[in-house]
Write a structure and sequence with these properties.
Elements (H helix, E strand, L loop, with lengths): L5 H5 L12 H13 L5 E4 L6 H13 L3 H4 E5 L6 H12 L10 E6 L6 H13 L4 E7 L7 H4 L3 E4 L5 H15 L2 E2 L1 H11 L3 H12 L4 E2 L1 H8 L4 H12 L3 H14 L4 H12 L6 H19 L4 H17 L3
Parallel strand pairs: 1-4, 1-5, 2-3, 3-4, 6-7
Helix pairs in contact: 2-3, 5-6, 8-10, 9-10, 9-11, 10-11, 12-13, 12-14, 13-16, 14-15, 15-16
Length: 321
Amino acid sequence: MNEIYIYAEKYRPEKLSEVINQKHVLERVKAFVKEKNIPHMIFAGPPGTGKTTIALCIARELYGKEWRANVLETNASDERGIDTIRRKVKDFARTRTISDVGYRMIILDEADALTSEAQQALRRTMESFTSVSRFCLICNYSSRIIEPIQSRAAVFRFKQLGEADIKKFINRIASGEKLKITDDGIKAIIYLSEGDLRKVANLLQASAALGEKITEEVVYDVASKAKPTDVKEMIEYALKGNFEDARKKLQDMLLRQGLSGSDIISEIHKQIYSLQIPEEAKVRLIEKCGEFEFRLSEGGNELIQLESLLAQFLLFSKSKI
């Protein structure tokens, strides 16, 4: 099992009843599928929350074993121009289905990557061939879909998955693959995944390849992310005026652990909220995080910029913020 994403694909639900969470979406979708009369749809929400999975489940339940012959699935981030809509999509949309459903289904993943010209062409195609085709547009940001398309489709907004949902998915894979995973390993995966089930599956797959037991240490090594405890300890050193120890902790993460500067700043940003300091101080420190993250994105030296950020924490503590 060395192929990437194998866990994510292997444990992808094939029926709507198997989908984790998103009950507010499933209730409406199941009613449409039961009537075998789905509208044009827009699935919008964070990555890894089940948008593409639900679209494929709808296709399977509508068409059964013949679903591949009646469904066109394309990723708009790869084929995002007007020619794709005018040729590939339009040719498929205008063809009648031989199934008893009465229409074919077109799934456009990453639809918010379509150019404005392509979206205008798509709007007309959706309008012209509604009797023989239904469109499902999947995107992270529905605001990037032009208003004429939004007005022709039912918009479904997906929520980020909670800890209980992610834990359920982890246990499903651990049981199926007979993985040994500790409680702190599960907590680490939940923390790092940020509600994205693809990240969960990939972290489990990569961690399982390193040893028999998946622990917090293994998960963070695989993810190459800064441990919250290390970052919090470094921040506390700086706020107590112990700059030398804070600097050593930073160098350990950057040089020995090989972590990226942007990942460390992201974790610093998260840890600021848990510090026992006034709200005004948190606001000012978050502002500094944004400033130094921008400096890194512009090509600044990671070690110099992060040491400078730590110096800002120390200066704030000296001035009692």
